[in-house]
Every structure is written in C-alpha cells, then in structure tokens.
Amino acid sequence: MVKQSFDQFSDSLYVTAVQVATVWTSPDSARDIDRLGVKVPADVKQWINELTYEQNLALCDENRVQSQLLYGQPVIITDTKGDWAHVVIPDQPSKKDERGYPGWVPRAQLLEVDKEDWQSEFTAVVIRKKAWLETEAGQRETELSYLTVLPVVEVGDTRVEVKTPYGNRFLQSNEVTVFPSAKGLEKGNGKSIVEAVEAYTGLDYFWGGMSAYGYDCSGLAYAAHKANGYQIARDAGDQAKAGVDVPFNALKPGDLLFFAYEEGKGRLHHVGIYYGDGKMLHSPQTGKGIEIIELAGTIYEKELCAAKRYWLDTEGT
What is the 8-class DSSP label of residue 64? Predict the structure, then answer.
C-alpha cells in the first residue's frame, strides 16, 4: 500500500459507499441481471454466483466492465449522466487517463466526504479474505474485501475504529494491518508478493475483478503488489511497460510474466505471477479459477513475451 495522499482532490471528495463498486464502460453497460452489483448496498457475491457462464463472459466480450472499487476508495467525479457518475481512480494508474483509471459508477454507490476529515495519521487495510465492518455494539454491518483501506480513528485492544462514508465503525484487530498514512505499508519482497494472493487459488476468475470475490489476471497482479506497498498500473498492458526488465533465466518469485498471441509476437493478453520452480500463479479466464501451473509444455510457455519486477530485490540479481 503506497502512502495515502489526497492532494489531487478538492476540499470534498467522493468515496465508494458499497463493499465493491463495479466500474462500467458506459451507463448502459449494466444489464438487468447485474442489478445486485449496481444497487445499494451491493451484493457482489450473490451477483457473481447468479451469473451464468455466458452472462459472465459477456462482461468481457461485450466490453461492459472496466474495473472495480473497494469500500472507502476515493474517486474523482468528472461527469454525471442521470443516475451515473463518470470517475477516474487515482490509485489505479492507467494510460487511458493520466489522473487514474476511468469508467462509470452508479452515483448512489458513491458518497461525498470532507477531505480534511477523511484523512488520518494512520490507515487500516484488511488482510483477511473478508472482514466484517461492525457497529460500536458489535453488530455486523458490511462484509469488506481483502485490501479494503480505511482511515483509522483509534486502535483498541481487540478492535480498530475506522472512518467510513456512514460514520465511524469497527474492524477486528486481527483482520487488519495498521500503518502510518504518510509512509504506507512496508515494502515486501517477491516471496511476499506470491504469498499475498496464494490463498486465493481456486477463486473463480472475474473480468474486471479487483476484490476477493473474483480477480482478473491484472487485478490479481495489482492486488499482490498493493498488499506489499507497491502501486502498479491496473491493466496488464500498462504493467508490462514499467518495472524492471528481467531475463527469463533470472526469474524470481514475485516477478510478473506477460503473454502475447502469435507465440509472443502479437497482442499482449495476459499476466501472471512467477511462483518459482518454473511455475506461475495466475487468474486465467472466465470459467476457471486462480491456479498454480507448470509453464513447461503449455501455451503460456510459447506465448511468454516479457517479465518485469516491481519489488525491491535486496539480494540483487
């Protein structure tokens, strides 16, 4: 997690007010079958579970979904159209907009907060697959995804009080890590990048997914780095253009592997995380779950076109 900065926002800012807000290509992209994903509160788990394979695949093939936002994640609203807001996401870098990843979100899934009030000396990040936001009385209110980030009010013995769009709430201390907002999380190494998402093996792929309810290939790579204090681009194509080039004979766990059609000479279409021992951890495609596979003898071995390292290699290469 990089340090929290709100310099690019006006005095008031808008933050995500549902557990996961999907970022759509246009206000017309969401279908009737997507109602659980666009309502308030959202029920992303049930929405995904109810989609058929064909309906899920259409999110990609029909260019409906761009990305996702986690609870409390700040956005910049650049336009509105009816019940929809066009946003850019500053902490999801993209070539599509220098201010951040662009797309459309239901306006009801965003709430305005005061920028000064939202800032705090410390920040909490969810380190479990899921964590429940609780009221002061201990009543469970909202299920949050892994890597949800919220400003800290106070750290107690068993719970951490945090700020939310709806006022102060609480998270169990063993479900979060608290870090200084100005410094960000301590940067991890390649092994910790792998470990950050290894537990998600088997989780179904979800196009545009950026949450523990489903990741796409670049979303998984983004999350693994976010959990270790690194901010990388949202999309695989952008991820491949930065970082440090790594020769294929010098790969280490945590390096990103990129794949292109036409045996590596065509359009880049996939990213995975090098697991070590010739294996890759990746979220492959709609209808399949996150997996760890041997590269040798697969189509990926033929399509491998680049490798990049974003993590700090203190041992050198």
Answer: -
pLDDT of residue 230: 97
CB atoms within 10 A of CB 317: 11
List the alpha helices (DSSP H) in the chain: 35-38, 44-50, 53-61, 115-118, 190-198, 217-226, 236-239, 261-264, 299-303
**Identity of the amino acid at 296:** A
- What per-residue confidence (pLDDT) applies to 84? 98
Whether residue 270 lies in the annotated active site: yes
The 10s digit of each residue's pLDDT in 221-251 is: 999 999 999 999 999 999 999 999 999 999 9
Return d(Cα 129, Cα 146) in angstroms, integer: 5
Q: Say what the pTM is.
A: 0.95
Among 86, 225, 282, 305, which one carries the catalytic annotation? 282
pLDDT of residue 2: 56
Contact predicate 163/124, CB 8 Å: no
Residue type at 259? F
Is-contact 16 37, C-beta < 8 A? Answer: no
The verdict on whether 282 is a catalytic residue reads yes
Active site residue 86: no
For residues 207 and 89, give the distance between their C-alpha atoms in angstroms, rounded to a whole number.
18
